[in-house]
Amino acid sequence: MNLKGEENMTTDTIDVATDTIDVIVDEIKYESPYIKSFKLVPADGLTLLRSGGGSHIKTYVQHNQGTLENHYSLTNDPDEDNYYRIAVRRCDPSKGGSIYWHDSITKGDKIKISYPKNHFPLSFSAKHHVFIAAGIGITPFLSMAADLKKKGKSFELHYAARSKDMCAFHSFINSNYSKETTFYFSSEGNRMSTELMKNKPIGTHVYFCGPESMVKEYSESAELYGYPTGKINFEFFTPPETGPKEPFQVTLNKSNKVIQVSEEETLLDSLLRHDIDAPYSCKIGGCGSCLVDVLEGEVDHRDLFLTDKEKEERNVICTCISRAKDASLVLDL
Amino acid sequence: MNTIKCRHVKDIALFKHGYVAEIELIEGSIPQQIGLADHIQYNNNNLQLPLHLVETKKEGIYYLFLDTSNYREQKNSIIEQFQYTSFTLGISEYSSFSIQSNYKKMLLIIDSSALFESLPIIDFLALNQINTDVYLITERNQGKDIDYLQHKLGNNIILVPSFDGLQSIFDGQAIGTYLFISGSWLMINTVTKIAYNAGFTDDEIQYKGVGPKKEKIMCVKCYSLNENQMDDEVDEITCKHCNAVLEVSNHYSKRHVAYLGYIKDKEYV
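The joint structure predicted for all components is written out below.
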């Protein structure tokens, strides 16, 4: 299972001088009343790295409160090396990221982005791919569909939106993937149902991207219909709701520091605030980049990266979302 | 290990390599729907032989599957003494096969060598009302064991002489179908490859091999395959094709069905 934070913003001041690419906003288009797409071309005029279907980039936008850091799926053909395209839904209320992209970013602006990463890859062994998108959740499937279509692989896309007008990329999808796509517009009383996953051929893998409630409903139904967890792939926009947060203390074995984690912050936030060089990427418990070994204490696992078996057997913690079960933990950090 | 006491109720079937009886549990309990034991004690006898117990729909009544392969000569006298007596078993956890609540259908692909050992699983699936098809790879089309299966499964037991038709059978399956493969290791490797090709993943395949598993090691110098002739794992092996001394890695290739053997001695590079 995979997930990614579409609207994952921080106001931490971070050093993005290295490991980033400078790009220029070359084109801005309305894809629906609330969704704009941004074409980003390399500032140095050279080529960009090819990505895989489902990849995303992190964008760093300078703001008066610090650096706004957001993750966005690449919507262009993964073979494209002249530009990247992202799509941003205007979120109200927003933590700052989407409003800034919609209201303040203009053509010609120079911004920094990360190299593409992929926490939501296509399965190599799948014989048939079923993509299920709700709203802005369509974005990772645009690059996946382009990839598969070019390779002549079998897929189908199910895309739910409020109405045709609110359905971003509707005409693009209709022009390129009309045979593979089914649209569901709730304004017309046509709701998407989990039943569409039933009785698919044995080599089918399902992929979901949308709000937490939708992803949960589809994952649970897929399991019920007989899909093993390895054939269920999904991506979230926001951190899943994981229950009450109690303060706890961490002792860092290598740094020889003791840090208090308050109920308002994550363990990762706390580590970064204390200048600990802790690894991370998605910040919502989906990619496993922030895994740290736990030497003492019991972990309250809240991530969706580790399997149930791994949670039982491995003494590790996803610092971006998981917490301590008791008052303290000792980390190998 | 969990010790239980049972008594024989009636004979169900007698095969070339085993015997099936209905028994009643007198003392103790069996936590799983399939129980496993490696010996049986009755009338001052202590026989070392594998047996399985499967729950039936009648409370306290189980089917007992006694594998008599190691007692071919004494089979009839063992069964005679065993009938209508009480006996003690040390039951341990059965780990060769399990099902999850979301299994919609089971396909069992077995060869003749695994037929008797698979009978408890077939009874277990029938008890749990799981839609089951059994493909028995055999050139025979008659026998008491086959009759037993046909009685249990009706048209859902299909005898196939070779692996030829398996690809189209696997390709036609829907999500929710899970596989259990049992037989020789060569058979398991062949069937597993066909299953992967149809889109089954490791999560959807269980298997149980008959006999010791002879791992293969692929020489990275001449790309030939070598078989480990030892019963245990080995750290190094000499390639029988090019004589390079190979360090057996833990890198397993599904495509070659073999572990990679890296060159240990630089002079062979």
